[in-house]
């Protein structure tokens, strides 16, 4: 072991376990509801990108303009709780949408939806702003015997679903059901001959308040063969789609990955 170097910073694996400080390089408006924030950090050349739904926790200053204090060890959660509230960073979950290890850059697509800290950060991010990033790995893992994939989600799942589609092989087949506000919110996803995308528009309805995806799925004849389903978005949407797939479509629970990415609060 070399002396004088913090051993915890030597491997990508260790990097995974503690937050690093990143700096905003650019902010790009993708559409009315989606903003890409591109960040850089010297350690990103050792970041182990694990797959298209790679989760990162981002740490934001407790107030705009406040200092960013990051936990220093892999026991980051208890360490965070021990920080005085005034300096404790705010933590949110996001997906790595673009990653360039050589340039030490990462792009994260933020849904802007209200006054939450994640949204607010994305709206006003400017070059030089700092945030913390902690890698948490990926979950997308279609089994070898998968014949086709079903991808279902709202805007928060778009970064992962777009990345999933981009990494499909030429013979892969997938069907995607994506809920957005309206036509202008549809994302440009590179065409793949084996992928059929259904965009669903909620119009004036509030995000997380419709059953559009479930209804469309119920009406749709799904391909035969062994499916792998990846479902993410508002929590009740995700659980209702999963229940439909298990009880009405006969999918086994291990054929389904599902994750509530956010929860709609009643007002
Ligand atoms: C594994 C994982 C990956 C994720 N990847 C992404 C990603 O790449 N991009 C992304 O934008 N989000 C992603 N999310 C979802 C994101 O973490 C939540 O939307 C988060 O709540 C946003 O934080 P905030 O500070 O903006 O709002 P919060 O302070 O958490 O919430 C404030 C209010 O806004 C509501 N709210 C939260 N999210 C939304 C929304 N999308 N639309 C409408 N109302 C909302 C809440 O119900 C709450 O009432 C991911 C979540 C998980 C678990």
Helicity range:
10-25%
Average pLDDT reading = 92
Strand percentage: 25-35%
Radius of gyration: 19 Å
What is the 3D form?
globular
SS-derived structural category:
alpha/beta
Unreliable spans = 1-14
Please write the CATH class name of the largest domain.
Mainly Beta
**Whole-number tally of structural domains:** 2
Provide a count of the helices.
6
Bound molecules: flavin-adenine dinucleotide
Please outline the major beta sheet. 6 strands, antiparallel, barrel
Q: How many E-type strands?
A: 11
Overall description:
It is built from six helices and eleven strands. It is α/β, with parallel strands linked by helices. The protein folds into two domains: 125 residues, Beta Barrel (Elongation Factor Tu (Ef-tu), domain 3), CATH 2.40.30.10; 115 residues, Rossmann fold (3-Layer(aba) Sandwich). A hairpin with a 2-residue loop joins strand 1 and strand 2. Helix 5 runs parallel beside helix 6. The longest helix is centred in the last third of the chain and has 13 residues. 32% of the residues are buried. The N terminus is likely disordered. Bound molecules: flavin-adenine dinucleotide. Flavin-adenine dinucleotide (FAD) binds next to strand 4, strand 5, helix 3 and strand 11. The site of flavin-adenine dinucleotide (FAD) has 23 residues, from strand 4, strand 5, helix 3 and strand 11.
